[in-house]
Design a protein that fits this description.
Keywords: Membrane, Transmembrane, Transmembrane helix. The chain crosses the membrane at residues 41-60, 72-97, 109-127, 139-161, 173-200, 262-283, 303-328, 375-395, 401-420. The chain is mainly alpha-helical. The chain folds into four domains: 1-37, no CATH class; 38-331, no CATH class; 336-423; 485-677, no CATH class. The chain is built from 29 helices and two strands. The chain has helices at residues 3-10, 18-37, 41-68, 83-92, 94-97, 106-126, 135-162, 173-221, 231-247, 250-255, 258-283, 303-318, 320-325, 336-343, 350-361, 371-427, 438-448, 462-480, 485-493, 499-502, 521-532, 539-563, 567-586, 604-620, 628-648, 657-676, 679-687, 695-716, 732-740, and strands at 588-589, 592-593. Helix 8 packs antiparallel against helix 9, helix 8 packs antiparallel against helix 11 and helix 22 packs across helix 27 (679-687).
Length: 744
């Protein structure tokens, strides 16, 4: 009804004063305004549901990744602490932090509590992701998490105190549930903070052990003879580093800790409570409900059931990973010693609090002139850190006590299994004793030397070692399906490395004085450009050659980036990448169409001469076009074509396009073969990653590389390498000089 009509009708009421009439009118007007302002609220509720759905999808992605890689402790890869995740979680938590909307309905109140349960689940899921951060990232994310969770807790406490939560007599128990969730969130927040401090020290311990293991692996590999590294030796080397990367993964160490087990137990308890109250709530949601009934009383209206159901699903799905992490400790060898170590809950290992002790012993990080003030600040710092150390130890002991719940469950299950086996053996007519494979046992014992552990008295189980070994074999087999078949065929046709000396004769001076060092990829691209330009060669042969070069350049780039990525070579390598894109995609070389020569340019010699003259003209025009790209391309083409022309002397007119194509293919194959003799060294180099957070993914990529390039390594391992220093093998100019000026 129009406000003017309401005012008109109120004017006919003679039994109320004008003041009361105006007050009633203002109340009606305010009510109408609130109704208008609250219209978008259901859509904001959908926004909350969508944000919750994004969190669920990220958790599901981590579950799939863990199952796919057979890591049942489910490392955090998609759902991790970062600015984006914190923002999405903040949106998903709008209901419990909303102080402006009373939300008196029963379903509304359950949805508020459900959001807190969902937050408990997400925090338990995200705990191992703290291990993926460096010190600065860890600090900023912990502070951001503290602000978010403390804001949530304070707002919920305000609502409990004011009666917004638990106001209804029918749903009075919601207040108690909300208090339980507040306590759980606070405990999880403390666990996150304590874990963050522990992770910093754990990484330092693991890094020291990794460096020792890496040195041992290098000695075993005999790096002094890189030409003799076989695929089998490389496989053992990669497997050793994979063992160090997996067992020394900060996420794995965090997932195996007592704090993660405790957070998993808390997550399970919060989910059970949430499921029980949500099932009752959802069962009472009627299709023909009205927003005015006691079940719904907020402006979110019809969006509340969506939020409630989606966050319930999220709590159920999100509980899987924290629950499985409670049993990550089963990766270690089960023994009386293992059980006793877990039962000794009051023993707090040094790595839990070492970081705080280091801070306690350190000096004040800022300068103060006054000695008295310095003493006061130093004493305050020591007292504060002593309190923090005490609290930290208390939290660790409490977490160890909570972690005993799944441990005792495991012990009970194992006792039942052992008893059943013993019972079966007693009544079995015969028993078969399976012996262990001595060779396999020796391999496992060798692999055990590269296991990284925080506690030396905790031994990794044989089952876990077998899983690590099998995972390497599985990754290699997967990579073998992606082997570069065209490249392998081309390398089989090559019998030596002589083509490296042919591509650039030292008798041909450069076109300009600037010193641009040559790289492996540039002559390969330049030779391919000439091969593409030959009109009498069948397209399928050219395509096969381009496919071979394309596959080869992938590994050539790895050699260049790993072994000769100095500033002197980088500019040439960048030019080669851009030029290859131009040749492969556009059939052009430095802007010149490779298929449309002048009609008279129809023989192999004339085509080479055309490339030579074009390159020369490009350098002449350099004053007008100061392009490093064009200069490097032109110089490479000029020296290459001039070298080929000089090698044929007066017989150049007799050179057919077929012979030239064969010669170009042979040179390409020889250059690729020479470059790829460095692949074993690349694999060894890429195994060693200095950043602990990236170590596992780096070794994973190296295993992929080994699986793809095993046939290439096998083809090249028996070829006699030039008499060069091992440090000179990654550089094409050293090979070229060797073949052009062979030592007597």
């Amino acid at each position: 009804m129009n406000p003017r009509m309401i005012l008109h009708k109120l004017s006919y009421c003679s039994n109320i004063s004008s003041y009361e009439r105006n007050s009633l009118f203002n109340l009606v007007l305010d009510s109408r305004k609130e109704a208008v302002y609250s219209k978008p609220m259901p859509w904001i509720g959908i926004y909350i549901a969508v944000a919750s759905l994004f969190c669920i999808l990220a958790m599901v992605a981590d579950l799939i990744h863990g199952l796919k890689n057979r890591k049942l402790w489910f490392p955090c890869t998609t759902f991790t602490w970062n600015a984006a995740t914190l923002t999405v979680i903040a949106v998903a938590m709008k209901l419990p932090v909303d102080l402006s909307n009373p939300m008196k309905g029963n379903a509304d109140q359950i949805a508020k509590c459900g959001s807190m349960a969902f937050m408990c689940t997400m925090m338990a899921n995200l705990l191992p992701s703290l291990a993926t951060m460096n010190g600065k990232e860890l600090l900023t994310n912990i502070i951001a998490l503290d602000i978010l969770v403390i804001t949530l807790i304070v707002n919920v406490c305000i609502q409990i105190y004011t009666g917004v939560i638990g106001e209804s007599a029918f749903m009075g128990f919601v207040k108690g549930i909300a208090l339980i969730y507040v306590a759980m969130l606070l405990i999880l927040l403390i666990i996150h903070t304590c874990s963050g401090l522990t992770i910093l020290k754990c990484k330092q311990i693991l890094e020291l052990k990794y460096q020792a293991g890496h040195e041992t692996a290098l000695k075993d590999l005999e790096l002094q003879q890189p030409g003799r590294l076989t695929a089998e030796k490389l496989k053992r080397h990669v497997k050793n580093h994979w063992s160090m990367a997996v067992t020394g993964s900060p996420q794995f160490i965090t997932a195996s800790s007592a704090t993660t087990s405790a957070s998993g137990v808390i997550c399970v308890v919060s989910t059970i409570i949430h499921v029980l109250i949500s099932v009752v709530t959802i069962a009472n949601i009627r299709v023909d409900y009205k927003w005015s009934d006691p079940y719904y009383g907020s402006d979110y209206k019809w969006s509340i059931p969506f939020i409630l159901i989606i966050q319930l699903i999220g709590s159920l799905v999100g509980t899987i990973a924290p629950l499985c992490r409670c049993y990550a400790a089963l990766s270690f060898k089960l023994s009386i010693k293992w059980i006793w170590n877990h039962i000794k809950v009051f023993k707090v290992e040094s790595y839990w609090t070492q970081k705080l002790y280091d801070w306690k012993q350190s000096s004040i990080p800022f300068s103060i002139r006054s000695r008295k003030i310095k003493i006061v600040i130093h004493n305050i710092k020591i007292i504060f850190l002593i309190i923090c150390i005490g609290l930290h130890k208390t939290v660790v002991v409490a977490c160890k006590m909570i972690a005993l719940i799944p441990i005792f469950f495991v012990i009970f299950i194992l006792f039942c299994i052992r008893s059943w086996k013993w019972f079966k053996a007693m009544f079995s007519a015969s028993s078969i004793v399976m012996g262990k494979n001595p060779e396999q046992q020796e391999n496992l014992n060798d692999l055990r030397r590269y296991v990284l552990q925080l506690q030396d008295d905790m031994e990794l189980s044989e089952r876990t070692l077998k899983s690590i070994s099998k995972s390497v074999n599985r990754l290699i087999k997967k990579a073998e399906k992606q082997q570069p078949s065209n490249l392998v065929k081309l390398l089989r046709e090559s019998k030596g490395f002589e083509g490296v000396g042919k591509y650039d004769s030292l008798h041909v001076p450069p076109l300009f004085s600037e010193d641009y060092l040559d790289c492996w990829s540039l002559p390969l691209v330049t030779l391919s450009a000439i091969a593409v330009s030959l009109p009498k060669i069948q397209n399928d042969r050219v395509d096969r050659l381009l496919s071979s070069v394309s596959e080869g350049l992938t590994y050539v780039t790895l050699v260049e980036e790993s072994l000769n990525a100095t500033d002197k070579y980088v500019s040439t390598q960048k030019v080669a990448k851009v030029l290859w894109l131009e040749v492969e995609v556009s059939n052009k070389w430095a802007g010149n169409n490779l298929k449309n020569h002048a009609p008279e340019v129809n023989t192999a010699g004339l085509i080479l001469q055309w490339f030579k003259n074009t390159a020369k003209n490009m350098v002449t025009q350099k004053a007008n076009d100061n392009s490093i790209y064009r200069s490097i391309c032109a110089n490479s083409m000029y020296q290459l074509t001039e070298s080929i022309l000089l090698s044929y002397h007066t017989n150049i007119d007799e050179l057919s396009q077929e012979d030239l194509f064969t010669e170009l293919s042979s040179m390409i194959a020889d250059i690729l073969a020479a470059c790829l003799t460095n692949l074993p060294q690349v694999i060894v180099t890429k195994c060693h990653e200095s950043v602990i957070e990236k170590r596992e993914s780096s070794v994973n990529a190296t295993i992929q590389l080994l699986g793809e390039t095993s046939p290439i390594i096998n083809i090249l391992q028996d070829r006699e390498l030039p008499d060069l220093d091992p440090a000179e093998l990654p550089f094409i100019d050293k090979w070229r000089d060797y073949f052009n000026y062979p030592s007597p």
